Amino acid sequence: METIPGVFVRITDRYKETDHVAYMYKQQGKYVPVTYRQLREDVEAYAAMLRKIGVEPGDRVGILSENRYEWVLTDFATLLVGGIDVPMFPTLTAKQIAYILNHSQAVCCAVSTLHQLQKVLSVMDDLEYLESIILFDNASEESPEGEGVGSHQHISVYSLHSFLAQGQKIIEGQDKTKMIQDYLSYSRPEEVCTIIYTSGTTGTPKGVMLTHHNILSNVNAALEVIKVHDTDIFLSYLPMCHSYERTTGFYAAFISGATVAFAESLDTVRTNLQEVRPTLMTSVPQLFERVRNGIYARMANQSWYRQRLFEWAITVGLRRVMELEHRGSASISTELQYRLADRLVFSKIRRATGGRLRLFVSGGGPLSADVNRFFWAIGLPILEGYGLTEASPVLTVNRIDDNEFGTVGTPLPGVEVRIDENGEILAKGPNIMRGYWRDPEATAQAIDSEGWLHTGDVGEWTKRGHLKITDRLKNIIVTSGGKNVAPQVVESVILRLPFVSQVVVLGDGRPFCIALIVPHEENLRTLLQQHGVEANRAFQHLCADPKVHEIIQRELEHAQRELAKYERVRRFALLEEPFTVENGLLTPTLKPRRKQISERYAPVIERLYADLMV
C-alpha cells in the first residue's frame, strides 16, 4: 500500500527527465504549462518552508482557494511533510471558515486572494489555533519583502512567491534523496491525510476523515474501469476541495501521468473547452442540462433547413442509442444514416468542445436519462456514477461497454454495495472513511457495527444489476394524504422541458406537490413565440403573466402524464432569480438547499396552497 506522498515521488520521478506537462493555468490570456519536473521542485521548496514555520506531522493545514496550480502545490506539500489538509470552498462566509479552522484545529491556512485573506483576518480574534497564513496572489507593493507580508496579532502572513524562493534556498546543497526519504517516513497508508467538511443541506458541517489508503484504493479501482493515459488532458472546473473532483479529476489524472488544465470559472468553461481541447472531463448534471438547452436554443434561431436537419440528426442519433441499448447493435440502415448525421451535424457540435473529448464522467447528483441519451447520440458519451465524500467518494459507475441509462452503474472493484429493508443504500470497502473528526457519535450513526456505511440514499437494483438512486431518505415528501413522493424523480421529469433551468419540488405535509421553477429565459421566450404570445418583454413581466402560466401548466401536465397522480406538481411559481451558491440556495456541490429555499420563498409557497380545493 502506498501513501499520496509516495505516489507523488514515484510519478514525478517517472517524468523528471522530460518536459511532460502536469498542469496548465491561464495567465494573461494564455495557458501556461507546468512540467512534472517543475511541480516536483515547487513542492519540495514548499514542503521545506512548511517545516520551517513549524508544521509538524499530523498538523492540519487549511486550503481556501479556487482551483489553481497553487492549490495542488499546497496539497502535495502538506501531505509530503505528514500534514493533514483541510480544503474549504472559497464561497464560504468568514463565520463558516472560522468554524472549520477551529474545529479542525488548523495551525496554518493557505488562501488564494486578498479577498479570501480578508475573510480570515476578519475573524482572527475567534481563531484559537491558527498561526500562519500563506497568500497565493502577490501581495501589495507596500508589503515588506522577506519572510512574509506582515503579521496580524498572533498570525503571520506569508506570500507564496517569497515562501517558495526561501524554500529553494533551504534545500540547496541538501541531500535530496535523504530529504525525500525523511518526508516519506512521516506518513503511513492507514493515517488520515485530509479532513473534508461536508456542505450538507442543513445542520453543522462534519469533517470526513479520509486516509491515504481510502483515497488511493478508490483512485486505483476507478482507473480499472475508466482507463486514463498520460496522453489525456483534463479540463478541471469542479472544486477540488470536494472529494469528487479531488479523487477523479486530480489524483486519478496525476497517477496516470495526464495533464490537467484549470478552467478560469464556470462561466468560461465553453471558451476553455475550445482552448484546451480536453479528452476527458468530470462534471455535474447541471452543466450537461445547460449545454443541451443551449444547443436547442441556438438551433431555434437557425434557418428552417438547419432546424429540420438538426431534428433529423437527433432522431437518428437517439434511434441508434435505443437500438444499441436494447439489442446491443444498431441496424445497417441506422448506422449509415448516423454516419451522415455525424458528418453534417454532430461533428460540428463536438467541435465546440474542442473536438477531442472521448467521454464525460458525471456525478454529484442525478442525471436525467434523456439528457444522457442526447449526449451519447451526438457522440459525447457520459458515464454516470455515484458516491459520497464518506466513500472517498466513488461507489458505483457505468462503463463504456456496460452502460444503463437512468442508473449509476455497478460497484467499483473491491467495493460492496447492498440495499437494506428500508431501501437505504449501504456500502463497505477500503474506501470508506475513518470517521468524522472529533465526532464519535455521528461516526457511530454513519457506520454500523459491521462496518457498513449508511449513505442516506434510497435505491434499487435493475434487472441488469445496476444501481438506481430513487431519492434521499430525508428528502422524501410525505403528503398530508400519506403518499410518499421522491422529489428528485419529479424534478428530473420537469427538467426535460427545455424552458426549465432549475426546479425544486416541495409538498411535505401538504395535500399535493408544488414546484418553484427558474425558467431558461431564452428558451421560454422561444416557447411563447411558438404560442403567439408577445415575448419581447421584461423577464419579470413574463414570469408574472397569467397567460404564460397557462402555457407552462399545459406543458407540465403533458410532461408529467406518466407520473402517479399524487406525484404530479399541481401548482408552480416562476422565479426570476436562479438558485446559486452565492445566494445560499445551492450547496457548493450545486445541490438545492431545500430548507433554505422553502424559507426564502415561504410567502410564495403559501400563496400556491391558499384557497385550493384538495
Question: What structural class do helix, strand and pairing data support?
Answer: alpha/beta
How far do the termini sit from each other?
61 Å
Q: Mean pLDDT across all residues, rounded? A: 93
Shape: globular
CATH class annotation of one domain: Alpha Beta
CATH superfamily of one domain: ANL, N-terminal domain
Individual helix count = 21
Radius of gyration: 25 Å
Structure description:
- It is a single chain.
- With 614 residues, this protein is an alpha/beta fold.
- Among the domains are: 35-226 and 238-253, ANL, N-terminal domain (Rossmann fold, 3-Layer(aba) Sandwich); 476-609, ANL, C-terminal domain (GMP Synthetase, Chain A, domain 3).
- The protein has 21 helices and 27 strands.
- Strands 4-3-5-6-8-7 form a six-stranded mixed β-sheet, with helices on both faces.
- Helix 5 (114-122) links the parallel strand 5 and strand 6.
- Helix 12 packs across helix 14.
- The protein is globular, with a radius of gyration of 25 Å.
